[in-house]
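User: Hi! I have a protein structure encoded as tokens and I'd like to know what sequence might fold into it. I'm fairly new to this, so please keep things simple.
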């Protein structure tokens, strides 16, 4: 164990308790802080937050039970898993899913590695405990995985059409144009909601042959920001055309950014009926770093800041409800319904896993099979060949 006094540099860099190899060098002022900041940025902000929360849950439990958290004995981790699995809500249901427990294990492993300790989560006892908990959950039918229901092509078009036909004022028109952009861009681009809300005006360019090119600067599977391009093509019908949906909303954003609320009112009150393609028109002008999707109030006022992921979730649910969808179905919808719908519809239409991955950005076909099993179970299924 290293018990000597730590220099400020060592504290910043979180030096392992057990030191091997050469001694830590004396660094120039500020260098250690920059190293610490860079190491911290190696993981996404969301991952850092959830790891911190999971680690707090573990250390709090260890303090209460009188166990050491760092380094932790495998038996301690196994006991923690059992305690989590046995925790129930006021209604008597399990408080934590197997996925949550697995995430807590990942956080425990991360903190041990960060401080130079071997991770106790790799011990056979911990693995067997986690496996047993999963089996118990499955046997009891507790905390089953419930992904978001997909919105297929017919759903998206029906919801968009209902939104457009129900507009009664210019304020309704603002919200309709934004929500149509969310639905058609999100569906055709197979975007995660976090990817949608991160888009800026400059990330989208109009291509004379392909439709629109959307530069995805980073994603869940591209944390280093190598970036990729997703093309959303022109379609035969203007009502289902993603480039048209983008253009109609971009006109509103540009009007607001250059002239505020009066310019938006003027644009919508003098706009021609949407009866043909508008995606070949002149691209509206606004700041390239301006967020594409914005919050919209009931009175039509548009925010300067970007829309949140929760805003996308609520917009999809609200539009499905207004389109007459059953309340039980609406509860199953959310921000992921567009991406899940893309994969499901593509499979149903005969697309290969490779072709789907070109748009979704999945690195392996394994996750795509989840969509096929849950939302298109008859595809490639021998039950269709039984002659019944």
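Assistant: Happy to help. Inverse folding works backwards from shape to sequence: for each of the 388 positions I chose a residue that suits the local structure. Here it is:
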């Amino acid at each position: 164990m290293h018990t000597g006094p730590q220099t400020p540099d060592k504290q910043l860099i979180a030096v392992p308790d057990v030191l091997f190899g050469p001694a830590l060098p004396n660094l120039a002022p500020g260098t250690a802080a920059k190293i610490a900041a860079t190491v911290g940025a190696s993981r996404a902000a969301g991952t850092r937050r959830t790891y911190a929360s999971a680690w707090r849950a573990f250390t709090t439990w260890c303090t209460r039970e009188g166990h050491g958290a760092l380094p932790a004995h495998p038996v301690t981790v196994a006991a923690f898993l059992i305690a989590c699995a046995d925790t129930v809500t006021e209604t008597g249901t399990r408080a934590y899913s197997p996925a949550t427990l697995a995430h807590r294990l990942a956080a425990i492993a991360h903190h041990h590695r960060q401080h130079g300790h071997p991770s106790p989560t790799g011990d056979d006892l911990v693995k067997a405990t986690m496996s047993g908990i999963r089996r118990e959950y499955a046997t009891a039918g507790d905390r089953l995985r419930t992904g978001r229901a997909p919105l297929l092509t017919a759903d998206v078009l029906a919801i968009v059409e209902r939104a457009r036909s129900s507009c009664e004022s210019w304020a309704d028109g603002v919200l309709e144009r934004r929500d149509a952009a969310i639905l058609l861009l999100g569906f055709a681009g197979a975007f995660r909601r976090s990817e949608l809300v991160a888009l800026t005006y400059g990330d989208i360019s109009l291509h004379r042959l392909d439709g629109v090119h959307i530069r995805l600067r980073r994603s869940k599977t591209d944390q280093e920001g190598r970036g990729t391009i997703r093309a959303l093509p022109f379609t035969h019908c203007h009502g289902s055309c993603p480039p048209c949906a983008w253009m109609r909303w971009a006109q509103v954003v540009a009007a607001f950014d250059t002239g505020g609320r009066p310019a938006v009112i003027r644009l919508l009150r003098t706009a021609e009926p949407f009866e043909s393609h508008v995606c070949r028109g002149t691209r509206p002008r606004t700041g390239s770093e301006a967020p594409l999707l914005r919050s919209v109030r009931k009175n039509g006022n548009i925010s300067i800041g970007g829309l949140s992921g929760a805003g996308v979730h609520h917009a999809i649910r609200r539009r499905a409800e207004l389109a007459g969808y059953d309340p039980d179905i609406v509860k199953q919808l959310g921000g992921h319904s567009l991406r899940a719908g893309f994969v499901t519809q593509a499979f149903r239409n005969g697309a290969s896993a490779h072709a789907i991955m070109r748009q979704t950005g999945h690195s392996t076909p394994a996750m795509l099979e989840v969509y096929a099993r849950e939302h298109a179970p008859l595809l490639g299924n021998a039950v269709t060949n039984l002659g019944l």
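A useful reference point when you look it over: The first strand starts at residue 204 and ends at 207. Feel free to ask if any position seems puzzling.
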